[in-house]
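Worked problem 6 (solution included).
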Amino acid sequence: MAVRIGLIHSVLPAITAVESMFEKHWPNAQRASIYDQSLYIDLNSDRTMPPKVMQRVEDLVNHCVAADADAILCTGSLFGKAIEIARNEIDIPVLTSFEALVETAFMAGTRFALIATDPGTNRLLDQDLQIYAKKNKKPTPRTEAVFVESAMTLISGGDQKGHDTLVTNAAAKTTDCDAILLGQFSMGPTKPLIEDQVTIPVLDAPESAVLKLRDMFVNNN
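Solution. The predicted structure is:
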């Protein structure tokens, strides 16, 4: 029987991004997606989660469990805290959007350019990098945060090319780092375009997450 992965999304472009990585790296996995745009809409103005959003994320995690998911992945970068709380009561793997990206990043070094299209993402990604480094006795990471304004609006409106141009131009300007980290799942399809413009590794959240999930099930069986 195929492994079922429950996927929780708050923006449509994330679905395409993660599905393409499953097709590339683990096509036999059965994906069961839940899309709730209200999670994104109802965030506080400072991009934190109000209690009602925290509860809805927990409810969606429990829905995935009830739907017989073998593992769960939340593709929204701003919901990590809710996922971490919800998974304490769950006995299957439950991943935040960029915890696999953080793990992969330290294989490249400790100096990172963080690219985000939501103003709240880089703060959380930097926080997770610092926590991971301390927990795993890694050197303290040095980060350069780059927020690509208007890119999320463009891709949400269907302008993939406009989004890609903004993100690629921003990433190409980064210097003195070991890797570029793309914090939004929706930037996954933009990765090859960035790689054409830079000579350092470019790491994205959807590919890192899919590879981590695959390794949990395929390489351990």
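Discussion: Residues 99-204 form a domain with the Rossmann fold fold (CATH 3.40.50.1860).
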